[in-house]
Design brief:
The chain is an alpha+beta fold. It has one domain: Alpha-Beta Plaits, CATH 3.30.70. The protein is built from three helices and five strands. A three-stranded antiparallel sheet has the order 1-5-2. Strands 3-4 form a two-stranded antiparallel sheet. Strand 3 and strand 4 form a beta hairpin.
């Protein structure tokens, strides 16, 4: 998946740990995904991360979302972190 024209943002994980869990679920379900780091910076001397974005093919978006719901991920909580 090289273009956001064929990808859809599944969610923005709060951190690497949450992203790793979601990536593992997607891998096990054989759903391709792309991980993007939208930006990082320093605020008052401390590193600030802006989450980890997880994209899936548009054709697999519904399946990926159902997988997260089925595996007891609180999708509403993920939505608060800019999941679509």
């Amino acid at each position: 998946m090289a273009s956001t024209k064929t990808e859809k943002l599944l969610c923005t994980a709060a951190d690497e740990a949450q992203a790793g869990l979601i990536c593992g679920l997607l891998e096990n379900a054989q759903i391709p995904f792309v991980v993007r780091y939208p930006g990082a910076g320093v605020l008052y001397g401390s590193p600030v991360l802006f989450g980890v974005e997880l994209y899936v093919p548009k054709s697999a978006y519904t399946s990926a979302l159902e997988l997260l719901e089925c595996c007891a991920f609180n999708v509403q909580e993920l939505d608060e972190n800019n999941c679509e």
